[in-house]
């Protein structure tokens, strides 16, 4: 029998050894010039154990000398590989491969170097749980970063959730790893982490690709490379595109409350197997979440028919509480299991691309919840968050703030952003609550925050992190979008990093949103005194690449839905909505609007229930949907409305000073031709029969769009298809149009060059 120190055995038995490979497994020893191997195994609950050499068809009995469950034996052989252990536990026997026979670490020194400096862009291919094969034996390789833990073990059904059975080895950089043979995809697991004092924490895998449906919290071994994609043409086209010069009309939605199914009808998987039903809540009894595949069948045709270019989904990363809308993430690398498996979300994205629709995902790198199975106090210390609550806690939200100054934490987030583009083929991210990241005093009173090294309130580490993540995203995935939800005057948010900007290519225009909602919520008579609300955005528009967004945040918490904000009777409310969105779609900037606005939902958004689909039985709601369908079609078909959203040459006021009538008129110019469209907006219910505006060219101007058309529920006042110019100069233009302006209406006109030329020639 071999000699081993009792302290070594005790460290294994009490799960206090940071490198169990030093004790367990097969170890060569020299004995009288012979090749001898000592095999040791710690097998809790075992009565007897044997080593099996399958190729030699030999079996060696192991003895328990130091401890009743610590077994060892010696074997004389030149090489010992892929041996097995036969274990007797009471009346039951089983045969396993010894995990401690697989000694070679899977992370290279280069991997560890990149991770420690924060630049391992695909660290998710190394950390986490990965099905693999070593020396012909299939199993799963586990690796987790927990540098301050005393010990780490893998837990699962495969070891009866006993942390003594699969103790991990700690590497130099604080990464613990272990290969466990004979387990595969579908296994649930967690990490048992002990801190210095021996306190035990059971944690989900920060790099886990799938989690159990809530309220369970175990991670699930997943193979993300099993899905076969069919969107190569889409990705290649995207790679050569510039989203800033293309139409971008985004339908924002929450997958869990767009529509529900019945819990009495379990969803079917493609192979005919049933998938577990994930019910919504007691507030919506009998309802279940639709799966990603069911959403693909129902949502995609709906959005495609409406003409939106992109879908933006509120966070789909795993989160424990439905009511957080997904903004309190515990599984950054796991699409939520509420709607199915990761491959089902891949199918959803794939189908979107097949139908010409891009996918944008809300991403939350600013904070994370305190749930015990998540990132909080991960290894018994403040690993991912700041230890000082003045930097590490959002008291208003009850969440923790990432420590962006720590390389490995920054690496976790940068790689996570890349992960969604790489593995799930998404087309963009919308980064939540950027302002909360950029300012150290965000939602904090005096004395509750710490200044930066220069005494300022700016979070310099967070700004550097945002620059890093955006630079990295666009280096790997040209043609995608990175959108900042940023509500302050922080400069150059959407400027490239090489100019000192944060590197986003779009920023939500929160100022425009507030001005519009304030303006449209007031009685139209008072709008004459607030013309600045309509025009002010063009004073600063060219300072950033703006996206105009009317999002979920504007239809919750007592704010009413969009149509409920509008003044007047029912007809005027619908007319105001059409007027607002027609102005939005003709104003420079890309567009985002939240689900339900397209048909005039009256109630606020409720995360626990469906949209008010029953409203489609009423004609005004049908007509409003038709309005959005035609508006999107026009927007996408007229390059003047999108090719120069961010260039001064793309926009020109005709008249913005007619506050007496609350009317504005302007021109949008195309980048690649001399085409332009003329837009006239009347923001009051008072029509105008002879309203004259100046235009730059002679000819016939076709009325492309009239928000007051009968088919949209309007009064059908207009210009009989278009108007000829008069040789009457106005508004610094040589010609003018005498127009009929409908009440609460927006007109879009375009010079018909062919008709004009025919008449001129005749």
From TrEMBL:
Glycosyl hydrolase family 13 catalytic domain sequence ranges: 282-635
Entry keywords, A to Z: Carbohydrate metabolism, Glycogen biosynthesis, Glycogen metabolism, Glycosyltransferase, Transferase
InterPro entries tied to this protein: A-amylase/branching_C, Branching_enzy, GH, GH13_cat_dom, GlgB, GlgB_N, GlgB_N_E_set_prok, Glyco_hydro_13_N
Any Pfam family: CBM_48
CDD domains: AmyAc_Glg_BE, E_set_GBE_prok_N
SUPFAM superfamilies recorded: (Trans)glycosidases, E set domains, Glycosyl hydrolase domain
Positions annotated as active site in the UniProt record: 432 (nucleophile), 485 (proton donor)
Keyword Transferase applies: yes
Metabolic or biological pathway, per its Swiss-Prot or TrEMBL entry: Glycan biosynthesis; glycogen biosynthesis
The UniProt record lists the keyword Chloroplast: no
E.C. number(s) listed in UniProt: 2.4.1.18
Catalytic activity: Transfers a segment of a (1->4)-alpha-D-glucan chain to a primary hydroxy group in a similar glucan chain
Highest rank taxon of the organism: Bacteria
Quaternary state and interactors: Monomer.
Biological function: Catalyzes the formation of the alpha-1,6-glucosidic linkages in glycogen by scission of a 1,4-alpha-linked oligosaccharide from growing alpha-1,4-glucan chains and the subsequent attachment of the oligosaccharide to the alpha-1,6 position.
Family the entry assigns: Belongs to the glycosyl hydrolase 13 family. GlgB subfamily.
Name under which the protein is recorded: 1,4-alpha-glucan branching enzyme GlgB
């Amino acid at each position: 029998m071999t000699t081993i120190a009792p302290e070594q055995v005790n460290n294994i038995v009490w799960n206090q050894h940071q490198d169990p490979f030093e004790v367990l497994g097969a170890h060569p020893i020299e004995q009288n010039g012979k090749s001898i191997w000592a095999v040791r195994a710690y097998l809790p609950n075992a009565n007897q154990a044997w080593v099996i050499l399958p190729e030699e068809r030999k079996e060696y009995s192991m003895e328990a000398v130091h401890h009743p469950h610590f077994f060892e034996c010696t074997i004389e052989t030149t090489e010992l590989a892929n041996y097995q252990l036969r274990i007797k536990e009471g009346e039951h026997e089983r045969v396993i491969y010894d995990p401690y026979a697989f000694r070679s670490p899977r992370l290279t020194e280069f991997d560890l170097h990149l991770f420690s400096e924060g630049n391992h862009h695909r660290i998710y291919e190394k950390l986490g749980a990965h099905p693999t094969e070593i020396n012909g034996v299939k199993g799963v390789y586990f690796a987790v970063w927990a540098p301050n833990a005393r010990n780490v073990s893998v837990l699962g059904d495969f070891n009866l959730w006993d942390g003594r059975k699969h103790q991990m080895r700690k590497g130099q950089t604080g990464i613990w790893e272990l290969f466990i043979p004979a387990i595969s995809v579908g296994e649930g697991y967690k990490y048992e982490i002990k801190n210095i004092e021996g306190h035990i924490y059971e944690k989900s895998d920060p790099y886990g690709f799938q989690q159990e449906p809530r309220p369970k919290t175990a991670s699930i071994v997943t193979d993300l490379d099993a899905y076969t994609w069919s969107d190569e043409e889409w990705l290649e086209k995207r790679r050569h595109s510039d989203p800033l010069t293309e139409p971008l009309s985004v339908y924002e939605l929450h997958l869990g409350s767009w529509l529900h199914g019945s819990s009495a009808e379990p969803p079917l998987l493609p192979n005919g197997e049933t998938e577990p039903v994930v019910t919504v809540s007691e507030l919506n009894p009998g309802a279940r979440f639709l799966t990603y595949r069911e959403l693909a069948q129902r949502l995609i045709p709906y959005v495609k028919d409406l003409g939106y270019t992109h879908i933006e989904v509120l966070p789909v990363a795993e989160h424990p509480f439905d009511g957080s809308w997904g903004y309190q993430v515990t599984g950054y690398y796991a699409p939520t299991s509420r709607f199915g498996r990761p491959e089902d979300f891949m199918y959803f994205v794939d189908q979107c691309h097949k139908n010409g629709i891009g996918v944008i995902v809300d991403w939350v790198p600013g904070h994370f919840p305190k749930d015990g199975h998540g990132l909080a106090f991960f290894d018994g210390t403040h690993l991912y968050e700041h230890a000082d609550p003045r930097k590490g806690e959002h008291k208003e939200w009850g969440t923790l703030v990432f420590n962006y100054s720590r390389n490995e934490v920054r690496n976790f987030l940068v790689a996570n952003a890349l992960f969604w583009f790489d593995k799930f083929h998404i087309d963009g991210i919308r980064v939540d609550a950027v302002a909360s990241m950029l300012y150290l005093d965000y939602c904090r009173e005096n004395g509750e925050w710490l200044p930066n090294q220069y005494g300022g309130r700016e979070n310099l580490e967070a700004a550097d992190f945002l620059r890093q993540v955006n630079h990295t995203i666009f280096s790997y995935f040209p043609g995608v979008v990175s959108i900042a939800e940023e509500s302050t005057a922080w400069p150059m948010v959407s400027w490239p990093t090489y100019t000192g900007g944060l590197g986003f290519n779009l920023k939500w225009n929160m100022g425009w949103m507030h001005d519009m909602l304030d303006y449209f919520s007031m009685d139209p008579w008072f709008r004459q005194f607030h013309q600045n609300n309509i025009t002010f955005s063009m004073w600063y528009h060219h300072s950033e690449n703006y996206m105009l967004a009317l999002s979920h945040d504007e239809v919750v918490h007592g704010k009413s839905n969009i149509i409920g904000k509008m003044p007047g009777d029912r007809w005027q409310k619908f007319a105001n909505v059409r007027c607002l969105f027609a102005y939005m779609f003709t104003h420079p900037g890309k567009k985002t609007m939240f689900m339900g606005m397209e048909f005039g939902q009256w109630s606020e958004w409720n995360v626990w229930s469906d949209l008010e689909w029953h409203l489609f039985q009423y004609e005004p709601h049908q007509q409003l949907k038709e309005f959005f369908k035609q508006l999107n079609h026009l927007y996408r078909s007229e390059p003047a409305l999108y090719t120069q959203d961010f260039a001064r040459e793309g926009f020109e006021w005709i008249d913005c000073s007619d506050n007496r009538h609350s009317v504005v008129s302007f021109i949008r110019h195309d980048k690649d031709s001399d085409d332009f469209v003329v837009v006239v907006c009347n923001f009051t219910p008072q029509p105008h029969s002879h309203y004259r505006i100046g235009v730059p060219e002679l000819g016939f101007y076709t009325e492309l769009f009239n928000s007051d058309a009968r088919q949209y529920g309007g009064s059908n006042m207009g210009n009989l298809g278009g108007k000829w110019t008069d040789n009457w100069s106005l508004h610094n233009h040589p010609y003018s149009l005498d127009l009929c302006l409908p009440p609460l209406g927006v007109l879009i006109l375009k010079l018909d060059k062919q008709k004009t030329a025919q008449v001129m020639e005749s």
